[in-house]
Write a structure and sequence with these properties.
heterodimer; A: 292 residues; three-stranded mixed sheet; elongated; B: alpha+beta; eight-stranded antiparallel sheet; 25% helix
């Protein structure tokens, strides 16, 4: 329990620092931002495990900041701030199960029959996708998704996408989906999802993982649009945007951001030098253990 | 410096946030003293009364060999408000732990009632003699290198400061 609390505290502090930093240096979307979000999801699991910090004497005499003091602040009728933290943690866990874990078990209904012949070469001609299965979903909206494991991928295309998009547009959308499976992106995003599930009870991890997912989409957009007119992908994204329920603010916000990045010339992968990222990680490793 | 572009801003922001956290760390106990985890070193018995809200119970009988002044006094709010005072001189020591509320502190199964003193349980462990006694809402645990025969006298002379 102490470890989980420490992870949440370190993540919150690191999240606040990185959030302020990203705004201060006006960091654009790209590899640098992805690396910072990866650090934010992984480093607190490490710094919270630094031994020798769990007893009260460390918090009292050596710690720079003892979060238990804040958690122990009394509110009303015997309720302390840590009761509120527990409640928030419980709500976050339910939210994670409902919004992230359960959907991963619900595959869209799709059939491998009735796959248009022209789709196969667009899919199986891609690196590593020679064995990729294609399935058609009866959904009337534009939807392309992938499922499975590396080497056993399945591409799901909705009837709405086949009806609304031309063959070159579908090819572009497939290029985007394919980009999720190359250069280790599939492994990275799934390992980070595991790190995220370990931190299902605190909001910083939820925010960091969602930001990472948007950055991944932006990176895959850039791969798909490379050598083509980005306006084509922008047009497809705007079609999806129009079909998205206006109440789904998060999904529409993510689509808007992807369009904005494509329109402004794509992500900037070298916004900060690698040495800065390494130094930032080192600084966090150095200072966070002094918070308990 | 281009190799570390942006790092200075990160250091400044980290310093700022850590400064704010330190202010919170220091100021919360000023308003809510019980949020300190302890053990807190206390300078005088009056501090104990101020911090804990109760008067320390001390044995009036203390052999001169232990000296007049205690060698350490600490107080913890968690898990129960507990005051510990220790006199030590060479190999000789006397430690009195006063815990407010909660279950009886752990003691070995062979511990036995202390004759003539109700609600007291004592035992020895090598040269150590120990006794736990209930006094009102408190559990008092005395741990000493003094001979077991002194336990009764120590308990009998417990007096509020």
């Amino acid at each position: 329990m102490t470890y989980l609390w420490q992870v949440a505290v370190h993540s919150a502090v690191m999240g606040a620092i990185f959030y302020a930093w990203v705004h201060r240096v006006d960091l654009p979307s790209g590899r640098t931002k992805r690396h910072l979000l990866m650090l934010l999801l992984v480093l607190p699991l490490v710094t919270a495990a630094v031994p020798g910090r769990s007893d009260g004497a460390f918090g009292e005499r050596l710690a720079w900041f003892d979060s238990v003091r804040v958690a122990d602040v009394p509110l009303v009728s015997g309720v302390h701030l840590y009761h509120v933290a527990w409640l928030l943690g419980g709500l976050m866990t339910i939210l994670t199960i409902w919004q992230e874990v359960l959907p991963s078990f619900r595959h869209p209904h799709a059939t491998t029959a009735d796959v248009p012949e022209w789709l196969w070469p667009l899919v199986r001609g891609r690196a590593g996708w020679a064995q990729c299965t294609v399935a058609v979903s009866p959904l009337p909206s534009i939807m392309l998704a992938t499922a499975g494991w590396p080497g056993r991928a399945t591409l799901i295309v909705s009837r709405g996408a086949l009806a609304a998009l031309s063959a070159p547009d579908v090819s572009l959308a497939i290029a985007h989906e394919h980009a999720h499976w190359v250069e280790g992106r599939w492994w990275k995003s799934h390992l980070l999802f595991l790190a995220r599930l370990l931190q299902c009870y605190h909001p910083t991890a939820l925010w960091a993982f969602r930001e990472y997912c948007i950055e991944e989409e932006i990176a895959c957009d850039a791969v798909a649009a490379a050598g083509r007119d980005p306006a084509t992908l922008v047009r497809i994204l705007l079609q999806v945007y129009k079909e998205t329920d206006p109440r789904d603010v998060a999904a529409r916000g993510a689509l808007r951001k992807r369009v904005d990045v494509l329109m402004s010339g794509g992500p900037q992968d070298a916004a900060l030098p690698p040495a800065t990222i390494i130094a930032a990680a080192g600084l966090m490793l150095l200072v966070l253990p002094w918070i308990v | 410096m281009d190799r570390l572009k942006g790092l200075f801003a990160l250091v400044l922001i980290t310093a700022g946030i850590f400064g704010a956290l330190r202010i919170v760390h220091v100021s919360i106990p000023l308003v809510f003293p019980q949020t300190r985890q302890g053990p807190i070193e206390v300078a005088s018995l009056d501090d104990v009364r101020r911090l804990a809200g109760f008067s320390p119970l001390l044995p009036a009988y203390r052999p001169a060999i232990l000296g007049d002044r205690p060698t350490s006094m600490t107080f913890s709010f968690h898990p129960r408000p507990t005051f510990v005072i220790v006199w030590r001189a060479g190999d000789q020591y006397l430690s009195v732990t006063q815990q407010q509320g909660g279950p009886m502190p752990p003691h070995p199964p062979l511990a036995q009632p202390l004759a003539t003193v109700p609600d007291a349980t004592w035992w020895t462990d090598g040269v150590r003699s120990q006794v736990i006694v209930a006094r009102g809402e408190f559990w008092i645990r005395i741990d000493t290198s003094l001979p077991p025969r002194d336990l009764t006298r120590l308990v009998d002379t417990l007096t509020a400061y």
